[in-house]
């Protein structure tokens, strides 16, 4: 039994455009092309697409996925490995949920005691976060800039990486506070946070107005990046994107 590209797109949630792109790069070639020129897929292709989506969820880039698929022999063994990694990711998300829950409890306690701004153990804010895993998508969209970023990252010590991770997560939490307070994205305080975000990126590469907007859109479009933001506060990815767009129009155009 075969399925058309439209049917596969409907079943999987992957757009027809993405499926065509996967075909063009040899990642997911359809079983056959119909007389009308439309792509058709069979069970083997659906199973391969499942593996691709699993590895995307685990943070792998398309080149890495292609390499894994080319090297694997036993599909069951491969799926068991994917399952193992998914379970590990589930455990990591459990840690993140606990981290955010602990922060909520401490902030609520601060409100009750009128002793604002004194989280008892600030380092606990960052337990379970792994910002590095979201860099693969940037490498696919902006390979030149990603190479410069990688060169910069190579100069960082482990202590530097931990510090930058803490700073990035703290910035996300500050933006979440603006979001929850209903602060407009054009507000000066929000834009000051975005300016700090932009200057941090400029340590690695200097985005134009268009590139900075595109990066903000990626925070929404990419499931992993959106998850990183929205685990802090629902809607934070879109709020960050909109704030970055305002900054790009005002400061970078």
UniProtKB/TrEMBL annotation:
Phylogenetic classification of the source organism: Bacteria, Bacillati, Actinomycetota, Actinomycetes, Kitasatosporales
Organism equals Streptomyces lydicus
Q: Which PROSITE patterns match?
A: HTH_MERR_1 (PS00552), HTH_MERR_2 (PS50937)
InterPro entries for this protein: DNA-bd_dom_put_sf, MerR-type_HTH_dom, MerR_fam, TipA-like_antibiotic-bd, TipAS_dom
Q: Does the keyword Transcription regulation apply?
A: yes
Record-given protein name = MerR family transcriptional regulator
Q: List the molecular function annotations (GO) for this entry.
A: DNA binding; DNA-binding transcription factor activity
**Keyword annotations of the record:** Activator, DNA-binding, Transcription, Transcription regulation
Listed SUPFAM superfamilies: Antibiotic binding domain of TipA-like multidrug resistance regulators, Putative DNA-binding domain
| Stretches assigned to the HTH merR-type domain | 1-71
